[in-house]
Amino acid sequence: MCGVAIDPAMTALQDAFLTVAEAAREPAWLAQWRNRAMQGFIELSLPTRAEEAWRFTDLRPLITPRGLPAQAQAASADPFQLAAHRLPGEAHRIVLVNGRVAPDLSQIGELPHGVWLRSVSETINLRPDLIRAAFDVSDAFGAQSFAALNAAFFSDGFILAVEPGVVLRHPVEILHLGEAPDSQAYHLRNAILVGADSQASVVETYIGSGPGWTNAVTNIDLGGGAVLRHVKVQAEDAAAIHLAVTRARLAETAHYDSFSLITGARLSRQDIQVAMAGEGASLQINAAYLLRNDQEATIAPTVDHRARGGQTNELLKGVMADRAHGVFLGSVMVREGADDTDARQLNRNLMTSPTARVDTKPELTIHADEVKCSHGATVGDLDEAALFYLESRGIDPVAARTMLIEAFATEVLDVAALPSEIDAYTRRYLAAWLEGDSQ
Amino acid sequence: MTAILKIENLHARLTGGREIVKGVSLVVNPGEVHAIMGPNGAGKSTLSSVLVGKAGYEVTAGSVTYLGRDLLALGAAERARAGVFLAFQYPVEIPGVNNMYFLRAALNAARRGRGEPELDAAQCLKAVKAKLKLLDIGDDLLKRSVNVGFSGGEKKRNEIFQMAMLEPKLAILDETDSGLDIDALRAVSNGVNRLRDPNRAIVMITHYQRLLDYIEPDFVHVLSEGRIVASGDKTLAAELELSGYAAFGKAA
């Protein structure tokens, strides 16, 4: 239970919604859609710990004395501050500040023919068809209250649409900076539509300062044989809150490769919901989450095998120091008829402190024949024998610990086998976390 | 001449357990090779663990002086940086820690300990490759994780290779011959013999006399029930081979 009366807060939220809706000057269908989403959120209200999927999540840090944080205002950012977070090499870059695309900081560059990459706000006016396609990919506000709230309030986001048969050579780089000085919300709505036999990669990074709340929803649709590599680095401020839902639908033989590195935010949750809709679709979900102090992070991949011959490989590893709390809620469903599915799910946890906490729940439901499925979870602490071995070679205890934690976490990067520039970029954030550990 | 190691009336036990080392005294001078032999349960591994500062042991009486310093006051990593090296009986596998990365960290720790400048990755690789030849080890070992996927012989050879890299003043070889076939034993022994040095002392802890055929000690000590019950030159080992440990059990 949140233990907070939501009714007066809900009234405030509805008032805020009316103000936003009025100011938006959007097409009627979209206004209507937002309106339905708002009604949906009111019906759902906030999830409580009575719900299985939210049993381990403490949402109290999200609630301010005035209810849910209000929408953040547009802001600018210092380009020098952003430079340190840029992806090396060539990229199509979109920078968002406080939930809105900052055109002067973005540099999309030249796109191949058949590729659309723009902010949501521009796309609404220029390509409403893409917005409809993007937002109708899955039910926008059926099941999840934060996704519904996002649909009602979203301020901006990015739309990447790749027509069939196009290979986007350089990665799309999305950098979100949250700079609100107090509890304000950044409702981001994104879509990645990759047509049949097309290829793209997207690297999203979330950074900033202060206690802002990122509430992101990303819809992904992959056509037959499409390949998407999707990397997310969540390195938000230690006071921030980050909730994100990614929903993907894979057509036949499409491949979705998801990698997440989570080191930031006081409270975070990453839901990755994948529909393996076409025959022979394949999926990789790899993630490393490293938490310290009082951080809490949930990672919840939900994979729905609906067709034959799908493949899923998941390796998610958590490191919990101090009083940190890591939660893994993994579910793989193999439906009737989804024969020859091959699904592996593994969550491994390293607790480096007796006051850290781990909850892990890998689930597997099988309604088909001839499937190869495995799932497992481990929880352990640092190997004392390995620590002593390192110390006996002159390596200080703190450095030895860091070395072992790094070894534990980097296995995920080794498995993910990211392209070298993205790999190096990701390792920088990992190194930054480890440096914090040795201080 | 300052002794490298001076153990005086050392008593030690597993924390909270019963006493296992019951009054060991030993002086090891530069250039000397000592063998400490004894049956299972004699206190050999407790003695080596206490010397290198492994957690879980406590010294209840006596002292250990290393190059004039109180060794027992130092942490395990400090002892290593001061030049104390243990070749493990069971080298530990560390998945995910690259051997080269580990060697560089260890080498630079040792160099810091000696007040020498640290080596960068390229310099370190050069130093490593030179020593690999010494022990006839292939450089594919450098790409692997520390001890992961190594055979028993490779693990022991890797220990001696690390010893060659770190150039300790005092090397303690803990049951280095255990689990080795004759070829591996020969390779490891050759490596150790090449590391014999007038400024370095080596203490071999072993159950069997076999190792001493390959690495000839200057002194042999028999450890029994936590005490050194006999000391002599290498002929003592041969005598021990003939009569067995039982003959020395209650001596002294």
How would you summarize what this structure contains?
With 439 residues, chain A is α/β, with parallel strands linked by helices.
Describe the structure.
The complex is a heterodimer of chains A (439) and B (252). By secondary structure, chain A is an alpha/beta fold. Chain A folds into 2 domains: 7-278, no CATH class; 383-439, no CATH class. Chain A has helices at 7-24, 28-44, 79-83, 120-126, 128-135, 145-153, 384-391, 397-416, 420-437; strands at residues 70-71, 92-97, 100-101, 115-119, 158-162, 172-178, 184-194, 199-208, 213-222, 227-234, 241-250, 255-262, 267-276, 282-291, 296-305, 311-320, 325-334, 342-351, 357-366, 372-380. In chain A, strands 1, 4, 5, 7, 9, 11, 13, 15, 17 and 19 form a 10-stranded mixed beta sheet that branches. A 10-stranded mixed beta sheet of chain A has the order 3-2-6-8-10-12-14-16-18-20, covered by helices on one side. The longest helix of chain A is centred in the last third of the chain and has 20 residues, at 397-416. The two termini of chain A are 36 Å apart. Chain B has helices spanning 44-52, 76-81, 99-113, 121-134, 152-166, 182-194, 210-214, 235-243; strands at residues 5-14, 19-28, 33-37, 57-66, 69-70, 84-87, 94-98, 145-146, 170-174, 201-206, 219-224, 227-232. In chain B, helix 3 (99-113) crosses helix 4 and helix 5 runs parallel beside helix 6 (182-194). In chain B, the strands form 3 sheets. Chain B has a 6-stranded mixed beta sheet with strand order 6-9-10-3-11-12, with helices on both faces. Chain B has a 4-stranded antiparallel beta sheet with strand order 2-1-4-5, covered by helices on one side. In chain B, strands 7-8 form a two-stranded antiparallel sheet. Chain B starts with a strand and ends in a 9-residue tail after the last helix. Chain B has 252 residues and is an alpha/beta fold. At the A-B interface, helix 7 and helix 8 of A face helix 2, strand 7, helix 3 and strand 8 of B.
